[in-house]
Design a protein that fits this description.
The chain contains 4 helices and 7 strands; from the N terminus they run E-H-H-E-E-E-H-E-H-E-E. It is an alpha+beta fold and 179 residues long. A 7-stranded mixed beta sheet has the order 1-2-3-4-5-7-6, with helices on both faces. A hairpin with a 5-residue loop joins strand 3 and strand 4.
Length: 179
């Protein structure tokens, strides 16, 4: 198998570039920003807000033990090609799951594998996962249905999506997966 799923706090996380930022984070930032500029993430409500080195230093690294992040590494290329994070809601045993993958890699099933891994980890820690995606995000909806979680609850005119998702009615499906 040429792809490995690993916790972002793994030993390799300690290997940093000259700015003190782990290479794994740089890989995620690079593919995410490139793909966001190309319009590859039409359902991400972060439109013109690229990941910055300051965000990594001031949010990702300090929260690496609070949030749960796994990355998928292509072992042949030694590059991160996808990531999944459960952003824990303060003082709660629940978090929001977000997954991205590098559009340059056409590896089938990596989103499904990351989703399964994150659900399993959350369940083992007693964490409820919240998954939200645009009603137009057919691939994400397909993954959740494939894993047996059905349609999800429709939330109309979801506030965080307003004016950020072009050509959208801002409706989302939400799944709450209890541990």
């Amino acid at each position: 198998k040429d792809i490995e799923l690993k916790w972002l706090g793994h030993a390799g996380f300690q290997i940093k570039n000259k700015d003190g930022i782990p290479y794994d984070c740089i890989d995620v930032m690079n593919y995410f920003n490139r793909d966001l500029k190309k319009g590859k993430y039409p359902y991400v409500p972060r439109k013109n807000n690229l990941i910055t080195r300051n965000e990594i230093k001031n949010k990702w690294i300090p929260n690496k033990n609070r949030n749960i992040t796994y990355v998928a590494e292509d072992l042949k290329l030694n590059k991160i090609i996808a990531s999944a994070t459960i952003s824990l809601i303060q003082n709660k045993k629940e978090g929001i799951l977000q997954i991205t993958k590098d559009s340059n890699y056409k590896i089938k099933g990596i989103g499904t594998e990351l989703t399964k891994k994150m659900i399993k980890i959350a369940s083992s820690k007693g964490i409820t996962i919240i998954i939200r995606t645009s009603v137009k995000n057919k691939s994400a909806i397909k993954v959740i249905k494939k894993l047996g979680y059905g349609e999800g609850e429709l939330i109309k005119n979801f506030e965080p999506y307003r004016n950020k998702i072009k050509g959208s009615n801002y409706d989302v499906f939400e799944w709450i997966i209890k541990s």
